[in-house]
Amino acid sequence: MVRRLLKGFPPAETRGPYTGIHTNGDKGLIDDGSDRITFVDEKIEFFHFHPTCQAETITSVSSSFTVVPNMITEAEEEMLMKEVEPHLKRLKYEFDHWDDAIHGFREIERSRWSQQVSSILGRIRTTAFPDSCQQLPQTHVLDLAKSGVIKPHVDSVRFCGNIISGLCLLSDAVMRLRHVELKDQVVDVLVKRRSLYIMRDEARYNFTHEILGEEESFFCGEAVERGRRVSVISRNQPTEESPVDSATQS
Ligand SMILES: O=C(O)CCC(=O)C(=O)O
């Protein structure tokens, strides 16, 4: 699944306009009167813009990448793990292919959940996706061993639309974003245990993302202890406006 999702990257001119969830730059929750509650994060706390970053990078990443700390409680994390663990445990971590985008992982996809977990996932989906958006029915659960890494990649535009959300379980981690053309434009994002990240539009298409290995896990110079990490990832369907994956077009 993950390997299918990681291939391909569209040229800039084929990418659609920005259509993500907008934030107003303040901290806190925005209640717009609908069922959706938009969390506006304290960006400064989760983003480390490397000194070479241009103002454009700061604006672009700040407006298209959101971190919601403590999206779930410890009890909810336990509930989620209890539900996925038996399925993950049947699989072995894959370590052998060093050139693959991901090393030291096992993964499942699920669309059927207990009522309690469905309600947690529903909350996540309401936070991450606009009502109008067609979500992929399957939730992707990616279990990264303590020594596992996810190398820089852009998720395939063929299988996934403009929004990717990830709920982080069991361990803090550092996600690194790097502009696909301007390689010195690097932003580290602290994705803490039980937080939700939402990556959309510019962050999703114009930057590679990776999860740093345990030896490289530093945020603003401070070591971030990386253990086994499980992410629960939701995505939306590509639409007609989605960029075309020229690399996989026949
Ligand atoms: O584990 C994560 O949060 C990131 C997963 C990822 O990079 C992917 O599925 O493309």
From TrEMBL:
Which terms does the UniProt entry file under GO BP? Answer: DNA damage response; fatty acid metabolic process
- List, alphabetically, the GO terms of the cellular component aspect: mitochondrial matrix
Q: Which SUPFAM superfamilies match?
A: Clavaminate synthase-like
- Write down the superkingdom of origin: Eukaryota
Instruction: Tell me the cofactors it needs.
Output: Fe(2+)
Tell me which positions the record assigns to the signal sequence: none
Please report the name of this protein according to its UniProt entry: Uncharacterized protein
